[in-house]
Amino acid sequence: MAQPSSILHFSGHQYLRSRLVLSILSGKPVRIDKIRSEDKNPGLKDYEISLLRLLEKLTNGIEIEISVTGTAILLRPGVIMGGVLQHECPLSRSIGYFLEPVIMLAPFSKKPVNLTLKGITTDKHDLSADILRTVTLPHLQPFGISEGLELRIKRRGASPGGGGELQFLCPIIKQVKTLNFIDAGKIKRIRGVAHAVRVNPQFSTRMMEASRSLLNRYIPDIYIYSDVYKGDESGKSPGYAMTLLAETTTSAIHCSEAISQPGVAPEDIGIAAAQALLSEIEKGGCIDRRHQTMVLLMMVLGSEDVGRCLMSEPTSKTIQFLRDIKAFFGTSFKIVSADQSNLDCTQLLYSCYGTGYVNSNRTLA
Amino acid sequence: MDSQQHKSHRPSSKKEKGKERQHGFNEKAFAPKSGRKADRQGRRKVEQDQTRLHVPLVNRTPDDDPPPVIVAIVGPPGVGKTTLLKSLVRRYTKQTLTEAKGPITVVAGKKRRLTFIECNNDLSSMIDIGKIADLVLLMIDGSYGFEMETFEFLNILQTHGFPKVIGVLTHLDLIKKAATLKSTKKTLKKRFWTEIYQGAKLFYLSGVLNGRYPDTEILNLSRFISVMKFRPLIFRNSHPYLLADRIEDLTPRELVRTSEGKCDRTVTLYGYVRGTNLRMGTKVHIPGVGDLDIQGVSNLGDPCPLPTAESEKRRKLTEKKKLLIHAPMSDVGGIMYDKDAVYVNVPGSFSRGIVDVPQGEGEQMVMDLQDVDATLEDRVAQSQIRLFGSSSKTLTVNRSDQLQQKPESEDDHDNDLSTEGDVAEQSDLENSSEGDSDTEAGSSTLPHINTGRTSHRTNIRSLPSSGTARADIEYADSDSDLGEDEDDARTKLGHRIQFDEDDEDIPSDEEADMLMHGNEDSENDVPKWKANLSERAASASSKSTSKRKNWIKLIYSSDLSPEEILWGKSKHSEVEIGEDDFLQVKRKHDVDDLEGLDASKDPLDISSLKKWEDEEMLDSIRHLFITGGEGPNVEPASGFGEESEDQQVSDDKDDAASNPEQLTPDQVRATALAAKKEVLKRKFDEQYDDPETITEDFYTSRKEEINQQLAINRAEFEGIADGEARALVEGYRPGQYVRIELASVPCEMIEHFNPLYPIVVGGLLPAEERFGYIQVRIKRHRWFARTLKTNDPLIFSLGWRRFQTLPIYSLDDHSIRMRMLKYTPEHMHCYATFYGPVSLPNTGFCTFNSLSREASGFRVSATGVVLDVDRSTKIVKKLKLTGIPYKIFKNTAFIKDMFSTALEVAKFEGANIRTVSGIRGQVKKALPKPDGAFRATFEDKILKSDIIFLRAWYSIQPRKFYNPVTTLLLPDKSWTGMRLTGQIRRDEGLKTPHGVDSTYKPVVRAARRFNPLIVPKKLQAQLPYASKPKLMKSQKAQTYLQKRAVVMEPEEKKALALMQQMRALRKDQVARRKEKKSEKKADRAKNLEKEDAKKSEKDKERKKEVMKMAGMQRKREAEAEGGRGARKRRKT
Fold first, then answer.
1. Where are the strands (E) in B142-245, listed by range?
2. What is the spatial distance between Cα B286 and Cα B530, in angstroms, rounded to a whole number?
């Protein structure tokens, strides 16, 4: 009975998450093939399967077909349900990998999301719990998603042992507000979290001291929290990391993170984090580079008005994301240099006409 | 006239009173006298203020150049719709239409165009019209009153967003008596007001003169239409749509011929975009046809443009009379649209050079075809690229064949045009998109340019920019145009050729870019790069490309992978060089590592962080902090600095305006100072102004916000000159005249096309393309005669769609479960769940049981609103399982006949059960012996005669039945969907099958027999007397009174005998009286019978007479009806 809707076709294992998210939001079925077909170890990895399971929990009526070899999947999206959920993340990836797509989907669900994720909270590949809490969620605020949006770090778990636990709470919204964020402002404060689990609590202080030594020259308003988890809440493996974020007068946020490595002193970690923060600041824009895709997605989903945002140059992920957005939503961005006269200007002004996406999953009664 | 003199006023003889002598405004006059009055006045003022307020809604239709207002003329047949339409069209265009079919667009004023459409009496048309009309002229026959269709239409309007309605009362000349006329007007007005709102405008049109309504009345009506203000309706404000005013079939004739007209067609529809922007990649729904994919959209020149100041100035006096009208489906304006040809009538002298004179669509088309902006050589080269192989050849041959068949006169005319072609070349094209398509159109018809003519048939195929949308390659080409708005001026190459070169073009961009990046990034670890750099730089500089990356072009119209775009990865040619081998491997490696993980965080590159050890580097970003002050060269972003959101729009523009011109340092300083002062002033104002005056109420602030956003929307893409590129980013704006190409349209749409039935193209949101279970709140219409039954087919009009589906009604049962209802409740809302296309929550709908004209009574059966959309449903209905005890212990009993297997019992373990008498219990465990029996415990001992109930809930799913109402595909537009079983039986003459078990049989209940209570003798003896069973047997022996002998005295004997005689006499008397009475009764009955017989005889004769008369009348009527078409009317 249902009309055969056109299936979008992609290949490769890269950008799997964003494609799945776009498919679910746009309602267009997607077929992804050649997933590591050339690899020694072909097909979907365990964390990808786990992600698909998580999406299955989050939605109703979703159909996921995985080919026998695991190198192709067909996803027919359903309705995003939300509600109280639990998910055990495999130890091959940290929780950030799973939470990122969920954050993009959660505001458009039928019931407010209350998701508990267990696994690794901080590792070197994905956004750590601290970045998600202090940077990712504030990025949603200009879109009108703020009340009741929360990420609770119940337990920390460093890799490889894991044992961390995050609780993600997200309200539902009717429509995303249009973003007009073209004023980067100036940095007014720097905040940070230095956490340490199953190591000497002194480590966090040492990281703080080191990073302060570099940042103190710029601004006095620096406050770095020392977050030491002990006992049951500290997971199964030792580790420590430092997350820094700089907030501007217009509440644009840039962040950086450095994670403990074997044989590297905590001071070096602190310095590296501070230096990374400086290079982020230098790149400019109103949006942190790691959150470009999320912000662009929300811009596309905005009401049928022109949304504008100042950002640094797109990352490779962002470029592919823009192309995927065009495939799924038919929306393309206008990307021009923020300063036409200045040839060295690396900041770009992204503007698009929102699709007027309305949360059709929301219940009225 | 001049001689007439008015009598001058006499000066007042009275002396002015003290109060009147006062000059100026008397303040006391309007001041309230009492506190109470003051209070009342205050409240009234607030009330008036509140009525002004409405929920602020964004109007997506632009204020400049809006689409024509759709004015629908609705009413029952014979009420004068066509007459009104013709009168109105004549009022606006001074032309008389011979036949008015389809939408007719006219220019009504400086800022307003109107599209008139007449709505026929078909319910489907009324639904479609109700969804798109901005203004409804609701016509009512004054001599007849309201008809059912009118009320039905009003109900449809109510559920789909109420547009403005003006009532028009006609046929008032048929009412002769003035008093009757007055009262009729009054009653009709009252009824109309209750339907619309108190004080709704109702027009009265008197009789018809020369086939039109009186000019003054029409003038008044047109004035009302022209000042009408419209409020955006939510559904239309979130969906693009258009009312097609023209339809063309583009299917190759040969294909149609070979398939005998049965092949799917390619169809183009023309109309003004309304609602929101029409974006690419959306599906559309044509009510009456179905969901269709848009093959392509192209913007056409406005066939009925609004007058501009310039066009007014240039307009000649002779053309003052010729007012614009666009009505392709009816014969006006010198253009006739036949099924597959357009005939253009060019009146009088026609000269090519005059561009500003508003030309008809056809003339414009012919001229556009001749606008050539490239040389012949280019065209030939292009055409070789475009038209590959032999297909082009056959095309030309065909065309030349057609040429020869053309009549002589048209030939002349076309030659005229061609000679004037060079004039047109100088006169510039309006926009490049036109130009683009023109070149393409030209390229395909190139070989014939010498003859200077094209046949009409090809004209249709190659309408302005029609070619762009059709061919894939060309479309991709327009993609590439997106970014070219800046570069075009520099690289003035032909678009097509440039695109072919893109492969080399883009990398060169990056190479140049790599130069920049290579210097600042630490590329120390790859020394080979540097070795190569100088060569590359040389090659890059040789090509004249801009230094900055064109991101739009790189991202959207190149095949490069993201990494290649970012880092300028070496191309295949460079791989062959071999020098880069080392680099190649390394990059490949780390890229893989990254991608393999789909990581969102790139690992810290320690080497690149090294630069921050340099003190100078650290100082270079000091200006980015608030403590840093103004940097040496202020970053553009911080140029906006500290300014509040609302100022950004203007600042942005200012920046753009001021940047290109080089300012002297003095000026820069001055402007900076001015800006600083401005900021300070604003801060001061914020602090010291009265906060109450600043804080606006929610309403005004929200409105202000909306306006600001709209201004941004307008400004953002204004700069993109290329129409196609702009459309790619923001879609086609409302008010643009577009042509939509649809593929695989059912052939019936073309074959049974009737201009009297409107074609609405409704854009669908992505969510609306999907299917699912939709939960709605529904209420049966109180005028609909019957109740609605679960799983009976119902026709929904929801969103753009009309479809039939099978709803299940339900009610919320104590917020625990959704309980199915077999019928809709009376006067109450209930829920309904059905399978169908998704609609956004809060969309209104109405339903019908039948759309046919024959259906009697009010056809709108229910109305409601969408609540929820899901992929599954949770509706349950009650299921009662019964069983009987076959063995009873104390509180335990064995129950049988409830389940058939032990497995079923296992599923119900722990379930609550109950006896009829109300003793509650629980299912415990299955028993081995009789299959399905189980042990159950109760709160008390149950009886063997008790029936045991288990109340369960059985979940039901709505059937997946979705049947779109495809009225436009039918020759007579009368659609019948799925019928009810009863209807089918009636139609087919089938008998209802009757199950044996369904018949009611007399219930035979065996009388319950209770055994006598026997108390053992021993126990009896011990009982106290009161409790002892009493022996109550009748006495057998005679009593003394019965046994004794009575001997009477003689006096006593005598008295007794006398008494007996008197009693006997009395008895006899009564008997005789009774006999007499019955005799009389019989007599009377006989008489009555006789009279009755006489009466019935008379009656029979009278009836015979009446039937005879009736039969004759019917015969006459039938004869009359055969003569003229039956006009069916249903009185309210």
1. 164-170, 202-204, 240-243
2. 61
**The pair of three-digit structure tokens given for residue B811, joined into one six-digit string:** 């009610």
Q: Averaged over A199-205, what is the pLDDT?
A: 91
Whether pLDDT at A1 is above 50: no
Given B554, B868, B960, which is nearest A1 (Cβ)? Answer: B960
Contact residues, chain B, for A180 at CB < 8 Å: 645, 648, 712
Distance from CA of A169 to the nearest CA of B (A): 21
Among B280, B770, B803, the strongest candidate for a mutation testing the A interface, having the largest count of A CBs within 10 A, is B770
Report CB contact under 8 Å: A352, B729.
yes
Residues from chain A that touch B552, judged by Cβ atoms under 8 A, are: 332-336
Note which residues in 667-726 of chain B have CB less than 8 A from chain A: 709-710, 712-713, 716-717, 720
Distance CA B140, CA B192 (A): 10
3-state SS class at B294: strand
For chain B, the residue count is 1132
In chain A, what is the straight-line distance between the N-terminal and C-terminal CA atoms, in Å? 28
Phi and psi for B1084 in degrees, rounded to 5? -60, -40
Q: Is residue B450's pLDDT more than 70?
A: no
Mean residue pLDDT of chain B comes to: 78
CB atoms within 10 A of CB B581: 11
Inter-chain touch B635–A317, beta carbons under 8 Å:
no
Nearest to B1127 by CA among B889, B896, B865, B853: B853
Contact B729 A28 (CB under 8 A): no
Residue type, B462: S
Query: Is a pLDDT exceeding 70 seen at residue B490?
Result: no
Tell me the domains of chain A and their CATH numbers: 1-78 (3.30.110), 81-173 (3.65.10.20), 187-283 (3.30.360.20), 288-353 (3.30.1370)
Residue B547 at interface with chain A, using a CB cutoff of 8 Å: yes
Which member of B609, B636, B643 has the closest CB to residue A272? B609
Distance from CA of A76 to the nearest CA of B (A): 11
Shortest Cα distance from A271 to chain B (angstroms)?
A: 10
Given an 8 Å threshold on Cβ–Cβ distance, is A188 in contact with B626?
yes
Pick among A318, A360, A361, A363 to test the B interface (most B CBs inside 10 A): A360
Give me the mean pLDDT over the B156-161 stretch.
Answer: 94
Q: Which residue has the tokens 């007449």?
A: B118
Q: Which residues of chain A make contact with B728, given a CB cutoff of 8 A?
A: 332
Of the candidate ranges A223-232, B55-64, B740-749, the one whose mean pLDDT is the lowest: B55-64
Tell me which residue of B30, B155, B14 sits closest to B858, measured CA to CA: B155
What's the rounded mean pLDDT across residues B253-275? 92
Ordered by where they begin, the domains of chain B are 69-236 (3.40.50.300), 495-598 (no CATH), 625-715 (no CATH)
Q: Nearest-CA distance from A269 to chain B in Å?
A: 10
pLDDT in tens, B645-674: 444 444 444 444 444 445 577 888 888 899
Cβ within 8 Å, pair B840-A310: no
Q: Which segment of A39-43, B107-111, B567-571, B982-986 scores lowest on mean pLDDT?
A: B567-571
Given a cut of 80, is residue A54 above it in pLDDT? Answer: yes
Residue B634: pLDDT band by 50, 70, 90 thresholds? Answer: very low
B1016 in reach of chain A (CB within 8 A)? no
DSSP H helices in chain A: 16-26, 46-58, 95-105, 129-131, 137-140, 202-215, 266-283, 292-300, 316-329
Among candidate residues B595, B1110, B1001, B894, the one with its CA nearest the CA of residue A11: B595
pLDDT digits (tens, 9 = 90+) for B28-53: 777 788 899 999 999 999 998 888 78
B89 neighbors B206 (Cβ within 8 angstroms): no
